[in-house]
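Quick one: structure for this chain?
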Amino acid sequence: MSMKKDEDNKMQLRWPIEDIVSFAKRYALTHGLLCLVPDNLDQATIVPFSLFPSPYSYTHFKFIWSIQTAYNRLYNRLSLDNEVLEKALASVIPIDDFIGQLWKIHRTVQRRQPIQLDIYRNDYMLDTKSDKMRQVEFNTISSAFAGLTGIVADIHKAILRYAIENCHVRELQVNEEKTQSNSSIDLILPNEALNKSAEAMVKAFDLYKNPDACILFLIVPKERNVCDQNALIDAIQKLRPNIRFHLRTFEQLTDELEYDEKTSNIYLKTSHDEIAIVYFRAGYIPDHYINEKCWLVREQIEQSCAIKCPTIRSQLAGFKIVQEYLTHEGVLEKFIEEKDLITKIRSTFAAMFTFDDDKTREKHFEILRQNTHSYVLKPNREGGGNNKYDDEILKLLQNEKENPLTNYIAMEKILPPVCTACLIKPNDQHVLHVECINEIGIYGTMVTNVDTNEEYINEVTGYLVRTKTTDTNEGGVATGYSVLDCLDVSGNTNILAKIFSQKL
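Got it. Here's what it folds into:
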């Protein structure tokens, strides 16, 4: 039964929360917010999402949006600077077999393709201590969920219109001025992360100059995130219906990849399709390279004329220890001339330090011992579940000789604002009306010619919101820690949480 509108036309809940959750799940299922079931890849289930958008500061969001193209250019230039990369990675190359292997390929393989395609995602949290956006990490490989993040905003629009009386959903473009309203929810739309990624890939494909070539998605075995990946394929084929796609794992390519020694082109043996672009949705952790043949595949791809997204040098630039190196005095100035941009980018850096310098190691150990709960230890690994917190840090310090900390960076903890959310998960494992925090990712794309320094594309394209409970340290959606979300930038703090907690 619907509630009657009150005299002040305030926003009110129409239906019991159980009915709204059922509506939200149906909408998600029928609009593609899906991934495959872990134990049955013939079945799909919903990707975890929030029932309503989280409140967020429009001012802070606009700030990180405004500096993304500068960040794109910074990491593009950084990836091309062997001297800086080597200085940043020098302490881990000898002790980290994974980074060492990537570095070996980077230094021994001749670059034959000047076109560089990058799809970045720059992740932040708002720090309440400083009231500034702080960078969590900069992703240079397999920047996921561009194909799904736009669906979440559509789900939220549908839920709000279904569930709330007197609710006006306003769609704001970034930097659009907005007027305050107590009866509006302001969503930042459109979220063009998917379409702009497709445009960048098509531009790179055109620059390869073989319209009969194909695009290869390099994926993990038993890939679950197929809807996200296929959304990008669909978006590209809307722009260029004749582009062919293949999806392969490293292990499959050990038998199927053909490298032409004369031309340095690569082909698939089964179809003899020439590969124009290799888009890596795998290859970011050691487990993806199950044997030396897989490393040989990576080497052949890197030395080929195919366009790589990313190149090994771009992947190397995305490691945590490079993120820490960028905070050193004078490093940003090597790549960015504008002092204002340097100041803005530097303002996003959290305090960080490493353990590779004999002169400062004991000092940094003592800082951790005295402030264990104020820092997080991050290894040079992607994929979630790798960071160390609180008592885990103390254990590492106690066993430092057995497990050296050289492969970690210490980052000051970011303390984001808390909001109340309802988290919708598969198999009715919902968590309703729980305290949560948000992590915001800003997508960027670049297509450049590294020989001529020409920038064909440098764009900020869209955003990703991941929300997790306050007692959860890690942040990956695919690993089950977070849910996909959207932002309400109306300034009506937690109004939706109050409405959705109404009893009917």
